[in-house]
Amino acid sequence: MAEDLQMSGCIAVVFNKKFGELQTLQEQNPEFGRVLQLKKGQRNILYLITKKHSRDKPSYEDVRRSLTRLRNTMLDQNLVDFVIPKLASGLDKLDWRIVGSML
After folding, report:
1. Catalytic residue status for 39
2. What total of structural domains would you count in the chain?
3. 92 in catalytic set
């Protein structure tokens, strides 16, 4: 996801339709490299900001940095289980095999 929170492509569209709360995400100061969070009952929905603008493409290093932040967030909050979509493999066109190996 980008700092501008446009959510205009791929999985971001699905997340926006399913979870919404764009204003709540905006209030969390979406900056490149940050992890934003929504709480839905017992679920924690974590959004990775991997780029500045929706039109940009993240690098593998950008994704790695975001995943490190995700790990730290999960450790800080004692979150142990997670489900994750194929990050940056849609319109961003990164190879999921490489991104998946970073997990």
Report:
1. no
2. 1
3. yes
DSSP letter string, the chain: -BTT----SHHHHHHHHHH--HHHHHTT---TT-EEEEEETTEEEEEE--BSSTTS---HHHHHHHHHHHHHHHHHTT--------TT-STT---HHHHHHH-
| Residue at 3 is within a domain | no
- Given the residues 17, 51, 76, 81, the one annotated as active site: 51
Is residue 5 assigned to a domain? no
Per-residue model confidence as pLDDT tens for the chain (103 residues):
788 877 666 565 666 676 777 788 888 888 888 898 988 888 888 888 888 888 888 888 988 998 999 999 999 999 988 777 766 666 566 777 887 788 7
- Which of 39, 92, 93, 95 is catalytic? The answer is 92
